[in-house]
Sequence to fold (536 residues):
Amino acid sequence: MHKHAIEEIVFKILMMVSTLLIISVLFLILGTIVFKGLPYLSWSMVTQAPQSGYYLGKGGGILNSILGSLYLTGGATILALIISLPITLYFNVYAKKGSRLVYLIRFAFDVLWGIPSIVYGAFGFMLMLFFGMKASLLAGIITVAFLILPIMTRSMDEVIRMVPPPLLEASYALGATRLETALKVVIRQALPGISTAVLIAFGRGIGDAASLIFTAGFTDSIPTSLFQPVATLPLTIFFQFSSPLAEVQGRAYAAALILTILILGISIVSRFLTQRFARNIVR
Amino acid sequence: MEPSAHISVQNLNVFYGKDHALKDITVNIPNKKITAIIGSSGCGKSTLLKSFNRLLDSVDNIKITGKVLLDGEDIYDPKAEVTHIRRKMGLLSQKPYPLPMSIYDNIAYGPRIHEERNKKKLDRIVEHFLRTASLWEEVKDKLHSPASKLSVGQQQRLCLARGLAVGPEIILGDEPTSALDPKSSQNIEKSFLELKKQYTIVIVTHILRQAKRLADYVLFLYGGRLIEYGPAQEIFENPKEEMTKEYIQGVIS
Fold:
């Protein structure tokens, strides 16, 4: 056999092995959650707040942390979007190409992306102390918004960068200002990418526990204001796993299953919605 | 007889960083005629065209000196309003770029930006300019479907209609047929010949035959310099400059 043919085969095998490896790990994780969690999953778990002694195996559910996670991550995602959309539009529509400032900010975001979430938690905690706030939904929202801001901004930046320059020129040539072009053309064109960026950020936020240990507190009740503490799914899972009781540990798997389904559901719905909006995109 | 100038370029110099792209161009673009800018690639044809509606502004490290007078007003005057200038000119680019919206919204985009909100008026504008660009019959039943689904030739006519809908006086074409098939190119050329009754048209082209078919005036650039300018017939049949002659005969390209 020729050397080239052998090379081809070796690399094909390598690629297949790594693909298989990743897929099997993914299914192993999903399988574990489903097998261990499904028996403990019950209707009351998703419709009730925990009764006292829930973490010792008593009845109730984790509605408080399901809603808590949605409130908190939803709020943080909206906050981060409000901040990162103008930043990315500035990068790609307003700033001159090759601007040093933009280069520096991009670099800063990349560095921020890599900072562990516990550091964001500590930073959020410091801010809280400074402003005299207690651990609350609001503090959690702000902290998670910090955490996901670099992720959202950089992912959005990459897709808005792909908008072809002549498309912008076409809009300018019709007498549109940069703001009009950004809002009416760039956002529309990049919408599928923007929503993917938002989803990635949401997924990162809803799965994070470390940034919330100090900032969001923990509670058995469903928050009714921004200033109350809030329970979240990752911390609920953590506390349940820490229990020596098999029943409670099983519920931890069930909670993980709920979290996974939640993320899956949200990404399917938003993908569907984006596809409906994206039919006008220029390819 | 010298025709009245619509755009008057005076000592225009354009630098991309250290690269001197246009060198001291002085020329008058006549009113309601088709002027073709010819020359080899990289000679500054597109740069000259884009300097007319200030699309060069956003390029990095660009330096522009000299004047471009539009109806007697210098468009590079710091007080000049860029959106107002651009509104006076429709631009057709090499490859058509429909905006990411429906056919109807593409045409209505410009008028809407310029504060036209009346639905009936917009309907009329859309129909009128789609007819002008001879696209109406093909799209009248699918005005609200995405513009990106049209064929490239149809998209270019859409872009023409879209440009006309903001009420320009000038149409700029940057090799507007280079991405089109022969039939679609013919359609665009026909539109141009029709439109020059009402509009001043400037096209950049590297197809000499196209320039011969369309142009009343021809402007030959080489290496960023204006080599020769005059009525098309003179340039093609009896060029004064040796370089023009060589370019037209295909000796230099």
Remarks:
- The beta strands of chain B are 5-16, 19-30, 34-38, 62-70, 73-74, 89-92, 170-174, 200-204, 217-222, 225-231.
- Chain B has a mean pLDDT of 89.
